[in-house]
Write a structure and sequence with these properties.
Elements lengths: L2 H23 L1 H37 L9 H45 L3 H4 L4 H14 L2 H27 L2 H49 L1 H6 L3 H53 L5 H13 L7 H6 L1 H15 L17 E8 L9 E8 L4 E5 L6 H8 L7 E6 L2 E2 L5 H7 E4 L8 E2 H6 L7 H10 L3 H6 L6 E2 L8 H13 L5 E5 L7 H14 L4 E5 L3 H6 L2 E6 L2 E2 L13
Parallel strand pairs: 3-10, 3-11, 6-9, 9-10
Antiparallel strand pairs: 1-2, 1-4, 4-5, 7-8, 11-12
Helix pairs in contact: 1-2, 1-3, 1-12, 2-3, 2-6, 2-10, 3-5, 5-7, 5-12, 6-7, 7-9, 7-12, 9-10, 16-18
Length: 575
């Protein structure tokens, strides 16, 4: 199997998996919509076939001098019934299928977001938020065509072709039915398959260019001040426009392919209709059918164009849908480890024994047989040069990374045995880089404790020496922009600390908690943290003298090896 065939096979399997998810989520609405779609096609074929028969039969009756006795009322009533019924069915079909598809895609978005936030920490730290969200949303948006433009129209079209084949065989002759079925199912399949093959590359590249354009535009807007300061704003704008021009070129390629496919399908329909008319005339000349019945085959073949014409758009977008479906399916197939229920620790004391960690492909471990212990109410600072593993040790303790060897115990239970929700209620990590979302100060704090009262919020703000700052900015209703815009770096850092303290964890892990604060403010914040959590075990990754001097005990990480609790090097900073 060639690489292109393998990719098409994977894309087809992913498309089918996504459709099954959509069908499972909205099965009733989609089945009803598919039935109405079939009704629309059958009504259209019957309407045109009946109209052709009616006109031809009425003309023949007039020529034979029998116009006065020819029944025009029942056929005309049936024509009006089919026309109105087809319109109503089309409205219902669009309403059901589009509503069901949008609801199912919403469910998929939620599942993708849930999968993303539970991904391994190594993956999360490499994600760029706006770009990751852009790709996720764009991939899901590309999937609306799977049910609406591909599978449902294809299934309804094939069913309509088969039903028409049976009806024409019964009303006319097997030769007419075979000619029409072979023309549409055979020739149209070839045309659509060639269009899909021709569009696959351009479709995927057009989607990649579209996502690159959106990502670059986001970066341009967010970094416009820096770009202007360095004189690169115009150049970056030209890069964004060049990416958009590439997207437009790929879109133009797809439009050409779609137009060529449409022309080929129209030509197919013309040939099939002409052949059906010729066969019908020959049968009428031989007296096997009447001229009015011969007209049914011709007009029915014209109506059957509706079963294949819409598929040309799906073929043009098939590459885009296939690539998006592969990414979405791969994300949804990522299974997070299920937490064990019914387990909890009695205290938040921390024990780390012979802990080792090595990144994938690395020759040397970051941490090698690290051991330490922290009692309830004790503050311990770990220090060491950059790259010695301070942040990694905190991530391992928070169960955001998995160790290569060794054991971490919180309270009376190994870390791996803690239920996820209970673990998060007891252990809180304040990473070196934390995010603040747009909203009010109260919203930012209540992310840590949704039910907290205003009094509790002011209490925790006082603990991090932020009360006066927040009051001067308008209080808890002060609105912040993305990433905490409206606060200085040190103020945003203290707001993140306040949010973490509000959870009142038994074990608090902090990575350089006073970064960006002057020494006086840092000492006040650290004292406030301990006063707010007097019984908590606190472990910090530190390099500032204020943090080291505040700790009850200091452990030095040196070249991936820690001096454990049996004999830690006790630093004696001035207090």
């Amino acid at each position: 199997m060639t690489a292109s065939n393998h990719n098409r096979h994977r894309g087809g399997a992913a498309l089918w998996q996504v459709f099954r998810l959509i069908l499972r989520d909205q099965s009733t609405a989609l089945i009803r919509g598919a039935a109405l779609s079939l009704v629309v096609l059958i009504a259209g074929i019957a309407l045109l076939g009946l109209s052709g028969w009616f006109i031809t039969a009425a003309a023949a009756a007039g020529l034979a001098g029998m116009g006065a006795v020819f029944d025009v009322f029942r056929p005309s009533a049936m024509v009006r019934f089919l026309a109105l019924g087809r319109t109503a069915a089309r409205y219902g079909e669009r309403l059901l299928t589009h509503d069901a598809t949008l609801k199912a895609l919403t469910t998929i978005r939620v599942r993708l977001l849930a999968t993303t936030v539970t991904a391994p920490h190594d993956l999360l730290v490499r994600l760029r938020g706006p770009q990751a969200l852009n790709r996720l949303m764009a991939d899901v948006d590309a999937l609306d065509g799977v049910p609406l433009r591909l599978i449902l129209p294809l299934a309804a079209g094939i069913a309509a072709q088969l039903m028409t084949f049976a009806a024409l065989w019964w009303l006319l002759d097997l030769s007419v039915a075979l000619w029409i079925a072979a023309g549409f199912l055979g020739a149209a399949t070839i045309v659509l398959a060639r269009a899909a093959r021709a569009a696959a590359r351009s479709s995927g590249e057009e989607e990649a260019a579209a996502q690159a354009f959106r990502s670059q535009l986001i970066d341009l807007i967010r970094a416009r001040d820096d770009l202007a300061a360095y004189g690169q704003l115009t150049r970056q704008g030209e890069t964004v426009l060049a990416t958009d021009a590439e997207r437009q070129r790929r879109r133009a390629d797809l439009d050409r392919i779609e137009r060529r496919a449409g022309f080929a399908l129209s030509l197919t329909g013309t040939v099939v209709a002409a052949g059906a008319l010729a066969i019908g005339m020959m049968l009428a000349r031989n007296g096997m059918i009447t001229p009015a019945l011969a007209a049914i085959g011709f007009f029915a073949s014209l109506a059957l164009m509706e079963t294949i014409a819409p598929l040309r758009r799906a073929m043009a977008d098939l590459g885009r849908m296939g690539v998006a479906a592969q990414r979405v399916a791969a994300s949804l197939n990522a299974v997070a480890l299920a937490p064990k229920d019914g387990l909890s620790g009695q205290t938040a004391e921390l024990q780390i024994r012979d802990l080792s960690f090595r990144r994938d492909g690395a020759l040397l471990p970051i941490l090698d047989k690290v051991s330490l212990a922290i009692s309830a109410g004790e503050s311990v600072a770990i220090t060491g040069p950059s790259g010695s593993g301070k942040s990694t040790l905190l991530l391992l303790t928070a169960r955001l990374l998995a160790p290569e060897a060794g054991q971490i115990t919180i309270g009376s239970l190994p870390l791996a045995d803690w239920d996820e929700s209970r673990l998060r209620a007891v252990v809180t990590l304040v990473p070196q880089r934390s995010a603040l979302m747009a909203g009010t100060v109260g919203d930012a704090l209540r992310l840590g404790c949704p039910d907290a009262s205003d009094a509790a919020l002011w209490e925790v703000l006082e603990a991090v020496s932020l009360t006066l700052v927040i009051r001067s900015k308008g209080g808890l209703e002060c609105r912040l922009g993305p990433q905490g815009a409206g606060l200085s770096g040190g103020e945003a850092r203290r707001l993140v600390l306040a949010r973490s303290l509000l959870r009142r964890p038994g074990l608090l892990l902090m990575d350089e908690p006073t970064e960006g604060l002057d020494e006086k403010t840092a000492l006040a914040v650290l004292a406030g943290i301990r006063a707010y959590l007097p019984a908590a075990s606190i472990l910090t990754a530190s390099h500032r003298p204020a943090e080291i001097g505040w700790a009850d005990r200091v452990i030095q990480l040196d070249q991936c090896r820690a001096i454990g609790p049996a004999g830690p090097k006790k630093l004696q900073p001035s207090k």
